Amino acid sequence: MKRIAEPALLAAALVLPFVLGATGNEFYVGVATRILIFALAATALNFIVGYGGMVAFGHAAFFGLGAYTVAILMNHGITAAWLTWPAAAAVAAVASLGVGLISLRTRGVYFIMITLAFAQMLFYLVVSLKAYGGDDGLPLASRSALPALDLADDLHFYFAVVALLAAALALFARIDAARFGRALAGIRQNETRMEALGYPVFRLKLACFVIGGAVAGLAGALMANQTGLASPNLLYWTQSGMLLVMVILGGVGSRYGGLLGALVLLGLEEWLAAITEHSALWVGVALLLVASFAPRGIAGLLAGRRNG
Amino acid sequence: MLQLFLEQALNGLQFGLMLFLLAAGLTLVFGIMDMINLSHGSLYMGGAYLAAAAVERTGSFALGVLGAVAGMIVVGALLERLVLRRFYQRDHLAQVLATFALILIANETVRIVWGPQPVMLNAPEALSGPVEVFGFSYPAYRLLIIGVGLGVAALLYVLVAKTRVGMWVRAGAANREMTEAMGVNVPRLFTAIFALGAALCAVAGALLGPLLAVQVGMGENILILAFVVIVIGGIGSIRGALVGALLVGGVDTLGRALLPTLLRSLASNEVASNLGPALASILIYALMAAVLFWKPQGLFPARA
Amino acid sequence: MADLLALDGLAKHFGGIRATDGVTLDVRAGELHALIGPNGAGKTTLIHLVSGALAADEGSVRFDGDDVTRLTMHERAGRGLVRSYQITSIFPHLTALENLRLAVQSRRQDWGSSFRFWQPAARDAAMTEEAAALLAEVDLAGRGTAQAADLAHGEQRCLELGMALATKPRLLLLDEPLAGMGREESERMAALIAGLKGRVTVLLVEHDMDIVFRLADRISVLVAGRIVATGTPDAIRDDPHVRRAYLGDEIVPIDRTLPPVRAQRPCGLPLHGEGRRGDGT
Amino acid sequence: MNLLAVEDLAVSYGESQVLFGIDMTIPEGEVATLLGRNGMGKTTTVRAICGLGGVGIRAGRILLAGEEIGGLAPDAIARRGVALVPEGRQVFPNLTVREHLVAFAANRSDTRDPWTPAKVFDFFPQLKDRAGNLGNQLSGGEQQMLAIGRALTTNPRLLILDEATEGLAPLIREEIWRCLAALRDAGQTTLVIDKYVERLIRLADRHTIVERGRVVWRGSSAELDADHGIWHRYLGI
């Protein structure tokens, strides 16, 4: 089942823009790109929440920092994606290392709140950068440049996003099966026992937090390219809430949880906006229903149906 | 300079007291029911809108506030009975999802009823002017807010510290099962607490309405401040909420007023006016991070 | 024999309660040393202090000559001071084999660190082999693919012991390994513990006096946070001071027909489901 | 007249069944005990009687003065006159001693001479000195006295003590035994769990021994005192 599902999924993602093009819906290539970028950010958050067992409520900060890194570098004339995108991930990684070093001293609700606090600090810090747009954000002069692909072309950019998302999903699956991922699984289920076994739990969790932060930074770099703007709103707490909602909606700790969550939430928004003025109301109702009746999210629903 | 400081200190007190009204309900719900309620800010928004509607209908500010309080008590109790109660036993993630959904629903409902534009809520005519205090003039309406805030805080203190219901609430926060075993109907107590929290939100929403804009989304901005307050104070502690609220209100207001001035004496004008407001906003989050770093359970942990 | 573990004046207070009140105790290399005492005597607290789960207020813990009082639990574990848990502490959603492999993987000195992100752990053949061997050693051969949560209580206790062994401890702290077991299961576990003698030094906390007196090389008696006696099983059995102190209830005449220590055993064996949160603290 | 009657009670904890048909009665004014090794179902029985969480009643009935209370909410059971002094005492860390005695005060047995906070302070003079202290500032013995006092202020028809003297120093234990004897002499119906069988024989009228969730023996104090084989077989003594 799974062996067929994954290549099929990838094939569908690759064929999609041609179908949209053939049916005169090119506009939706942009929509799909945006959804997949959020899917990447949510997948990164899911690595922290679902694999590492840490409920972080400030992930948008790393997402936003990635966007700003690309925008600021471009502002200084550096446009090469192979430079700026890794730089975005690196900046986000450094930031998440700092945040994690302090936040991981706390547990549970306090961890939720302290990660939120740091994200808000970064939000206000970015707002104060008047040289880089302040409240209004920093526009990108163009898309980042790659030797082989023409990223300014929406189709090429879409393929780049698909490739990076697929790579990230594969990477996380690989990590999960490796020693590091097994250690995380142990920490998630019984942290005290892992300590007693002699695992450096703090450093393992920190590494998990940093990896998740770095991938979110990469997603931010893509987002800046997609919208042509690094906006402070990318770092605001409601954005962190949205990412967390995607993860919970899709399925915490499920490999495709982030992807499913972004797909369903943003897809639902897009669809409802087309048919009703008050789409947010129905999105809310849908989320409430999922929260009430699908404790393991959409991934749980799908798995449940397959097993049952 | 002294006058500026005093005036800003009063502003900080006023803001802190309003934050306390929001944080008091939030900390009880959080501490006792172990429930993260992101939609608490929506109750505040609901209170402001109801007050605006009631003032317009009755022409009386006082009646408007009372109407908002009565309305939000009903809304709060219904919300608890029909929706939130299902999530007490669930994990925090499910609570985040559900109450985030409630924010979306609340915002859109308000938009449907009152439209997307901000609505007007004016301070009562009689209090629109300034009065003399400590040798300088200060808006009378803000003094009213301080007065009401102090009064409600005192009432809450008596309720929680001196009455049997208050003892149940504290006992319930520390050990729910034992409280039930002593004969307290905890589910009913929860509904009452939630309704009380909604009433306090309504007071804050109605009183702050004339100062801040009554608009969709007003709850989200202040919600996070309320969370900061209760985390600083210690989740579940009313005393902690009061101390935390006054700290956050004071630090935020004084920081905004004084930091740019302070920076100007250290750096260029331009840097100061750019950096000042941001630093002031960051201040309270830095405060919270610092508190959690040294006291990971907040200043007044409710559970020993 | 040299002392592998030496506690000196170890104390821990909770509010006004002195859970551990100046414990001085030596465990010699290679011995099986049992710690007994009535409920609430502070045995669990002492285990926490030795393993590093709690920080001592006073006194010191020396392990193999080094002062480890200030080390964290995982640092002590890294030196070979390893505990098992009274309330079964396993990874419920991993299989029995994965539980053991994770425990084996914890030995950095043999395998290198867990910061490996690419190679699937399941393909580490040597690690898997060792985990499988341990599985057999603790009588769980054939249960490797079962989720730990689905194992019977006695099997979970065996798995728990296996995980502690997987770390190749030099000193193993066993906290009530027989808790909640039936007679047969207890005997099976006792045989497993007996099999450890000579291979690994053990500090055993256990309520089942039959088995303690059969297994232990030496016994220490903890009452109200203090060690009141240490000696061979025979010496402890005959020590009138121990009898009186251990019973704690001087008024009760000791005229039962059964051997004295057993006779006054405060009925032992906590079982899962009975909501105990450790004794006395 | 039986104040408490437990009839063929079967109970599960989560997935697994823990009690398999417990029968037990306590006549008005008597003291009964539940005996057995740890983990044999004593605390589960108490939790089922009090309606506390996690315990699911699969079969059987629990009658308080003839009225079915099995499956009621814990607060409803408490208001009908059952008061628990739980294992581990569980005083409220953030309430003062006086507040413990005021918060839940009621007269649930309609007695003419009800327990009041003042009367509890007379009963436990030690608590009076600490009236303003918080629950978590007390020693273990004081906490147990407070837990008993807290239960008494509800004037319960049935008082239940789970591990009445566990973890207490010998002298304090004696004081608890004296106080339980005084309550018995005042006519308080009581169910006690403890491990000091000799003391329980002197205190109580009737005893029930559970093993692996079943009643394996029941009888009077005289019968239990006479047959030490029972002690050995079921209590490991």
- Average of per-residue pLDDT values of chain A: 91
Gross morphology of chain A is globular
Note the total helix count of chain A.
13
Element pattern of chain A in H and E: HHHHHEHHHHEHHHH
Over all CA atoms, what is the radius of gyration of chain C? 19 Å
Number of domains of chain A: 1
> What is the CATH C level class of the largest domain in chain C, in words?
Alpha Beta
Number of helices of chain C: 11
Multimerization status? heterotetramer
Query: How many domains is the backbone of chain C divided into?
Result: 2
Q: How much strand of chain A?
A: under 5%
CATH superfamily of the largest domain in chain C: P-loop containing nucleotide triphosphate hydrolases
Number of strands of chain A: 2
Explain what this protein looks like in three dimensions.
The complex is a heterotetramer of chains A (about 300), B (about 300), C (about 280) and D (about 240). Chain B contains eleven helices and two strands, in the order H-H-H-H-E-E-H-H-H-H-H-H-H. With about 300 residues, chain B is mostly helical. Chain C folds into two domains: about 1-80 and about 170-270, Rossmann fold, CATH 3.40.50; about 85-115 and about 120-170, no CATH class. Helices cover about 35% and strands about 20% of the residues of chain C. Chain C contains eleven helices and ten strands. In chain C, helix 5 packs across helix 6 (about 155-165). Chain D has a domain at about 1-80 and about 200-235: P-loop containing nucleotide triphosphate hydrolases (Rossmann fold), CATH 3.40.50.300. Helix content of chain D is about 35%, strand content about 30%. Chain D has ten helices and ten strands. Chain D has helices at about 40-50, 75-80, 95-105, 115-125, 125-130, 140-150, 170-185, 195-205, 220-225, 230-235; strands at about 1-15, 15-25, 30-35, 55-65, 65-70, 80-85, 160, 190-195, 205-210, 215-220. In chain D, the strands form two sheets. In chain D, strands 6-7-8-3-9-10 form a six-stranded mixed β-sheet, with helices on both faces. A four-stranded antiparallel β-sheet of chain D has the order 2-1-4-5. In chain D, helix 3 packs parallel to helix 6.
In short:
The complex is a heterotetramer of chains A (about 300), B (about 300), C (about 280) and D (about 240). Chain C has helices at about 45-50, 75-80, 95-105, 110, 125-135, 155-165, 185-195, 210-215, 235-240, 240-245, 260-265; strands spanning about 5-15, 15-30, 30-35, 60-65, 65, 80-85, 170-175, 200-205, 220-225, 225-230.
Labels describing this entry:
heterotetramer; A: about 300 residues; C: about 280 residues; alpha/beta; Rossmann fold; 2 domains; about 35% helix; disordered C terminus
SSE layout:
The complex is a heterotetramer of chains A (308), B (304), C (281) and D (237).
Chain A: H1 2-22, H2 27-51, H3 59-75, H4 81-103, H5 108-127, E1 138-139, H6 154-177, H7 179-189, H8 191-196, H9 201-227, E2 229-230, H10 237-250, H11 257-275, H12 279-293, H13 297-307
Antiparallel strand pairs in A: 1-2
Helix pairs in contact in A: 1-6, 2-6, 2-9, 2-10, 2-11, 3-4, 3-5, 3-9, 4-9, 6-7, 7-9, 10-11, 10-13, 11-12
Chain B: H1 2-33, H2 40-58, H3 61-82, H4 92-114, E1 130-133, E2 136-139, H5 140-162, H6 164-174, H7 176-181, H8 186-208, H9 218-233, H10 238-266, H11 269-294
Antiparallel strand pairs in B: 1-2
Helix pairs in contact in B: 1-5, 1-6, 1-8, 1-9, 1-10, 2-3, 2-4, 2-8, 2-9, 3-8, 5-6, 9-10, 9-11, 10-11
Chain D: E1 2-13, E2 16-27, E3 31-35, H1 42-50, E4 55-64, E5 67-68, H2 74-79, E6 82-85, H3 97-103, H4 117-123, H5 125-128, H6 140-152, E7 158-161, H7 170-185, E8 189-193, H8 197-203, E9 206-211, E10 214-220, H9 221-226, H10 228-235
Parallel strand pairs in D: 3-8, 3-9, 6-7, 7-8
Antiparallel strand pairs in D: 1-2, 1-4, 4-5, 9-10
Helix pairs in contact in D: 3-6
